[in-house]
Each structure stands twice: as structure tokens, then as C-alpha cells.
Write a structure and sequence with these properties.
Layout (H helix, E strand, L loop, with lengths): L3 H17 L8 E5 L6 E5 L12 E5 L17 H9 L5 E5 L5 H4 L21 E2 L1 H5 L9 H11 L4 E4 L3 E6 L2 H24 L7 H10 L2 H17 L1
The protein binds manganese (II) ion (MN).
Manganese (II) ion binds next to loops.
Length: about 240
């Protein structure tokens, strides 16, 4: 058995970091696959990420059913997490957020692409999922398993998927990398917007993205960043 308490502690601090760094406001959430039961995941009850405490962390089946709700109200959009964990066995952590910087790329034909080596982890290609394509006029929220699976299909093998007029979903092999990728996605989006105002942008090449992603694996960049962001969230 793994140390479930340590995983929950990391998930709580991850929630606080995403709040502190402006990736999540009152909305958005981060999950982790259950360390001992891969067909379940851990996710806070419906609460602003920056306020999340250990007792808020709930356990869910991949279909979004709470294992023991204990009177707590789950997030409406929890289906995003189960669908991604179902479709991508190697993914261990999922972030969903409405970071304002990414929204313009979800509603235009301009693709969001890595613009600086540190941000290579967002991946070569970032697809845009449009809930309207299959579900017509909705409240834009991923509120059932079918919508979650449609989103996961659009995500495919990519790291990130944007959601038209809504936000994004980020995947990673660890909680630390999920947090880092979600932060860098927002920063890259803002920098790309500034660069585009100046002229044609020289993006990282596919080869540069792959090479830079290697350097940012958990044993180097991600661990250093995780330590840094944890310290900032405790201030
Ligand atoms: Mn949402």
C-alpha cells in the first residue's frame, strides 16, 4: 500500500498553488489517480481550490460516483477527470481550469503553441474541443460521462486540450507536473499573445519541443519548480 495521506497532502498543496498562481479562481480543480486503486481517483469536494483542506478530498469511481460522499457536494464537472483517467492509463493527474489567458485560443483559429523552452511541456499540438459539435446548445459544462468521454477523445494522446468558450484540461504523469503544466500553459498563452502583436512568431520547432520536454522531466525541472511553488503557496 502506498502512503495515501502523503498523496492527499500533495493534492491539497497542488490546489493551493493553482489558486495562488492565478490558474484557478473560485473554479477549476485538480485530481490524482488513486495510488492503490487505478479505477478510482481523488478530487476535492466543490470548493475553491485555494481553500481546499485534507477533509475535502473525496474518492470517486471513474464514472464520477462518489465512494463515500459523507455529506460533501462533488464538483459538477468531475466527469472530466474520470473520462481522462479511463482513456489514458498512464495519466496520474488531471487539472481542469478556466485560466483567462487560454480562452482566446479556444474561440479562434489561432493555435496555442510552445513559444519558449520552459513551456515545451504543454506539447506539440493542443486540440480544441467544442461541446457544441456533439451536444448542441448546453450550459457549456461537462456534466455527464458521455461529455467527458467526448472531451477525452478530442484530447487524444496530447498533454492539453482546450475547451471552446470554457477553459482547458491538462494531463500529467504526476501531481507536480500537472500543476507546472497548468501554470506554464497560462503563461505561454499570455506571452504568445504579446509576441503576435509584434509580428510573425518563431515558435519552438517540433524537435525543440521534444528536446526541451526531456530536460523538464520529474527528476530535474519539475521537482525544482514543485519545491518553489509549494514554498510560495505556504507564504
Ligand atoms: Mn469548467
Amino acid at each position: 500500500m502506498s502512503d495515501l495521506g502523503a498523496v492527499i497532502a500533495d493534492l491539497v498543496i497542488a490546489n493551493r498553488i493553482l489558486g495562488r498562481e492565478g490558474v484557478c479562481d473560485a473554479f477549476g480543480h485538480i485530481s490524482v489517480r488513486h495510488p492503490d486503486r487505478p479505477n478510482r481517483y481523488l478530487l476535492s469536494c466543490s470548493r475553491a481550490p485555494e481553500l481546499v483542506a485534507p477533509d475535502d478530498i473525496m474518492e470517486f469511481e471513474l464514472d464520477g460516483s462518489p465512494v463515500d460522499a459523507g455529506g460533501r457536494k462533488p464538483y459538477l464537472e468531475r466527469f472530466i477527470h474520470g473520462a481522462v483517467f479511463e482513456a489514458r492509463p498512464e495519466v496520474q493527474s488531471v487539472v481542469h481550469n478556466h485560466a483567462t489567458g487560454v480562452i482566446p485560443y479556444s474561440v479562434t483559429d489561432t493555435p496555442l503553441r510552445p513559444i519558449q523552452h520552459t513551456f515545451a511541456r504543454i506539447g506539440r499540438e493542443i486540440p480544441v474541443w467544442d461541446i457544441h459539435d456533439r451536444f448542441g446548445d448546453t450550459d457549456m459544462l461537462v456534466s455527464n460521462v458521455e461529455q467527458g468521454r467526448d472531451l477525452a477523445t478530442c484530447l487524444g494522446d496530447n498533454v492539453v486540450v482546450l475547451m471552446r468558450g470554457h477553459g482547458c484540461t491538462v494531463t500529467a504523469p504526476t501531481i507536480a507536473e500537472a500543476v507546472l503544466t497548468a501554470i506554464y500553459l497560462q503563461v505561454n498563452a499570455q506571452l504568445q499573445m504579446e509576441a503576435m502583436r509584434l509580428g510573425d512568431v518563431a515558435y519552438l520547432t517540433p524537435g525543440e519541443i521534444d528536446a526541451s520536454s526531456q530536460i523538464n522531466q520529474p527528476k530535474s525541472g519539475a521537482e525544482r519548480a514543485w519545491e518553489y511553488y509549494k514554498a510560495r503557496a505556504r507564504e
